[in-house]
Amino acid sequence: MSLDNKPIYTGGCQCGAVRFRVEGALGDASVCHCRMCQKASGGFYAPLVSVRGASLEWTRGEPSKFRSSNHAARGFCNKCGTPLTYEAPDGVALMIGTFDDPEDIAPVIQWGIEAKLPYVDEVPKLPGVATMEDQEAAEFLATLVSYQHPDYDTETWPPEDQR
User: Fold this and answer.
1) How far apart are CA 94 and CA 105, in angstroms?
2) Over the stretch 125-143, which tens digit does the pLDDT of each residue have?
3) Cβ contact 110:44 at 8 Å
4) Which of 61, 69, 86, 152 is positioned for an S-S bond with 18, CB 3.0–4.6 A?
């Protein structure tokens, strides 16, 4: 919380070149199944939350933009490709997965359901395996070193030993 009791959210891209800070209440969170959002996110749908009623500040770098339609642009990191924003005349929405604490931002509505992929509702019914329980990948995973930016603000990035 800020000094005036407004909530504060932070986040950014995978490589850390672009970071943001949102001060104030977030709008409704949603998932959009439209084909444009599927392609922009590279996923089954785009999980987004409006920041229209809050203050958005880019604290490290800024997103590059792709104009995806005559009404909207998509912001992304031009170094690692992370999708960051959906920008329309009514405001900006951020990709929920780019927040440092995405678990606090639950979608309340689905949009574009006419393009929903037919198997999306079945995904929660699939068997689930924790990453470290995958015995075939255990050796690979034991040696994995992540260069992903951590889920908190850093003064500089990347660290000296990763440059």
Assistant:
1) 11
2) 999 999 888 888 888 988 9
3) no
4) 61
